Amino acid sequence: MNNKVRVRFAPSPTGPLHIGGVRTALYNYLFTKQNKGVFVLRIEDTDSQRFVPGSEQYIQDSFNWLNLDFDESPTKGGPYGPYRQSERKEIYKQYVHQLLEQGKAYIAFDTPEELDSKRKEIANFQYDASTRGMMRNSLTLSQEEVKTLIERNTQYVVRIKLQPDIDITVNDLIRGEVVINSSVLDDKVIFKSADELPTYHLANVVDDHMMKISHVIRGEEWLPSAPLHVWLYRSLGWEDTMPAFAHLPLLLKPEGNGKLSKRDGDRLGFPVFPLEWKDPSSQEVSSGYRENGYLPEAVVNFLALLGWNPGTEQEMFTINELIQSFSFERCSKSGAKFDFEKGKWFNHKYIQDTPNDKIAELVKPYIESQGVTFDKEFTSRVAGLVKERVYLLSDFWDQSSFFFKAPDSYDQKVVKKRWKEDTPNQMRELIGVIDKLEGFSSQEQEIAIKQWIKDNEYNMGGVMNAFRLSIVGESKGPHMFDITELIGKKETTARIQRAISKIDE
Predict the structure, then answer these.
(1) 262 assigned to active site
(2) Catalytic residue of the set 93, 262, 337, 342
(3) Please, what's the b/e burial string for 85-112 (b: 16 or more CB within 10 A of its CB; e: otherwise)?
(4) CATH class of 354-400
(5) pTM of this structure
(6) Could you tell me the fold of the domain covering 6-74+203-249?
(7) Domain map of the chain by residue range?
(8) Tens-place pLDDT, residues 242-292
(9) For 42, which of 10, 89, 117, 443 could close a Cys bridge (C-beta 3.0–4.6 Å)?
């Protein structure tokens, strides 16, 4: 293993980045920064059949939004590029040739139909030392036959040649020593002639070696493949510089039974992608955390605690605190339930702690989408009054619309309960009280209006609730006099007058 910490996040551009992938990248990032290492983005696009246009840009945009910067990447470059596997074809061919020359891999010409036939013939068939001798490959065919087939452009694959009954040890930083006997593994395909590209198994080993990756931190779905990767390092003569492995626990459904999927998000109403994604084929739009009104800092904090705990009661972490606190020793071996309500709670806390002027900038699109001209100073003041009630930035308009627009309807349940026979006359008197006020601060209003209610022996709750109904349209919102101070005297009296005329129609 190398002394210098170098880690990589290596997604495939086969669609939008899943939130589980974001968590994996985050743990890579925290570990790297903690050790003053190098964080590499590598695009593993060897699966040409599953490539989806726009995916790579989406991945980069997601990390830009989350403020997780890479030190080396396809866009930034670096000393070990190219950083797209599709641009490294010739490099892989070199090592495929080496493995073939050394007898550590072989060429197989079996068609899909021949393989299907063998699976029907042999129960639990796998292509390995016990079956390779009955298949159509360079171990059973003569050199001339192999040469002829290749010259005729017959499609083939290259398979790794595993020796049977050998214990392969994977030292995992989270799970400890994992020992797998080679007999349970098959001779995996490592190269396909159809697109002249390696499979993930070979490509990731070659790239990790050549990019001097010190630690491979990835999801536990890759743990069953880790013994094969160890075997490949051994076969290529790189065992001494092999990276350390850490296989992270899965993100589970909120109920805990199985891996988190997009379907779970659709079913329960939460995103599973960092940004909104529009499928180029189906045109289906999937929601994203950004568009749903999450702050990137909140998403990072929330994800960090899904599969890792600090060993303390602390929940709110800055990115620097996460970097300082993170350790594999405190990573769970079992999956983490995806508590999306907890994610909302984190976002709520971050919104509360965000300066009002920044909140104003963030909610600008939501305000403008309602046909309202954006005023930063005014919106900042509104943010200060309502952000305690906001869990998502997308909630802002619902919690504050009455600051920007007079209500065009009135909650009938509240009307029935709060708008009595004498209410219109009380509201007219209230207009008179407001008109006489020299100042219109929240405090000045409150003193004068409550004194008027007291002097006239009116019911405090009855008057104030009818007042709120007139201004807001329903019985919600922050302190009443804070609302009216912000919308101003003229608008306040106009709304009361409008309510009198509309409710009594």
Answers:
(1) yes
(2) 262
(3) bbebeebbeebbeebbeeebbbbbbbee
(4) mainly alpha
(5) 0.92
(6) Rossmann fold (3.40.50)
(7) 6-74+203-249, 89-192, 262-353, 354-400, 406-505
(8) 999 999 999 999 998 899 999 999 999 999 999 999 999 999 999 999 999
(9) 10
